[in-house]
Amino acid sequence: MSSGRDAGSVQSFWPRSSPWLTGASWLLAAGVTATQWQQHGLGGLLRVAPWAVGAGYLAWLVFWRPRVRVAEDAVVVVNPFRTVRVPFAALVDVSTQFALTLVTPHVRVRAWAAPGPGRHKAFTAGPDELDSLPVSSYDARKSVRLGDLRGSASGTAGELVRARWQHLVETEALELGVADTTPVDTRWDRTAQVVLAACVVLGVVAQLV
Fold first, then answer.
1. Which of 24, 85, 117, 149 is buried deepest, with most CB atoms within 10 A?
2. Is the backbone of residue 44 left (phi > 0), alpha (psi -120 to 50) or beta?
3. What is the Cα–Cα distance from 104 to 59, expressed in whole angstroms?
4. Model-level pTM greater than 0.70?
5. Which residues touch 159 (CB under 8 Å, ≥6 apart)?
6. 30-68 pLDDT tens trace
7. In angstroms, what is the C-alpha Rg of the chain?
8. 108 in helix, strand or coil?
């Protein structure tokens, strides 16, 4: 997994495998397109092109686009088809059981970019993945939950969120008791849906022509 700092004080997390998976998907789509062109000429190219473009765009949505941005006052979860802005004032819990999940009184926002680790991670975790985590990462027995391990995607992203949340609480910069009335902004990517639908329609039409 990877993380970085954007403009200002915004920290971002995204899977390290993103460019590799996206690139591999694009190469596969390009290979299929080239093969159809070579074997069936222009007609084969026209028939496969909409599906190849749609597959490439879907790969970008699924593998490249998802990330978690931790800003001064909110966490922005970018998933394939929607972006959700969760103000820290709306948070009541941060869960990492299956993936990084921001819990508010009215909605649970799961981050596509930060899935939880497999069970084998518990047996390979080193001391450096268990120490000096934000206080809320530990349970009542001072144990670290599997999803909070620093080497995991959910744990790394969760650490960024929890550290910022803890800082806001400790510096009294966060208004308390307003989680129930603090709005969570959800924005669906209609463009992505239209583009994929258009590729499917064009692909079906190309098969019938």
1. 149
2. alpha
3. 30
4. yes
5. 133, 134, 137, 148, 150
6. 999 999 999 999 988 999 999 999 999 999 999 999 999
7. 21
8. strand
Q: Which two tokens stand for residue 2?
A: 């990877």
Token pair, residue 139, equals: 């349970």
Question: Which residue, among 128, 187, 139, 133, has the nearest Cα to 165 in the 3D structure?
Answer: 133
Who contacts 113 (Cβ-Cβ below 8 Å, separation ≥6)? 13, 14, 15, 66, 67, 68, 77, 78, 79, 100, 153, 157
- List, in sequence order, every residue forming a beta bridge with 83; answer none if it has no partner: 78, 187
* Alpha-helical regions (H) of the chain: 18-59, 121-124, 153-170, 190-208
The tokens of 169 are what? 């609480």
**Between 190-208 and 18-59, two packed helices, what is the crossing angle to 10 degrees?**
60
Which whole-number Å values give the CA distances from 113 to 26, 78, 129, 131, 132, in the listed order? 19, 8, 20, 24, 23
d(CA 107, CA 136): 20
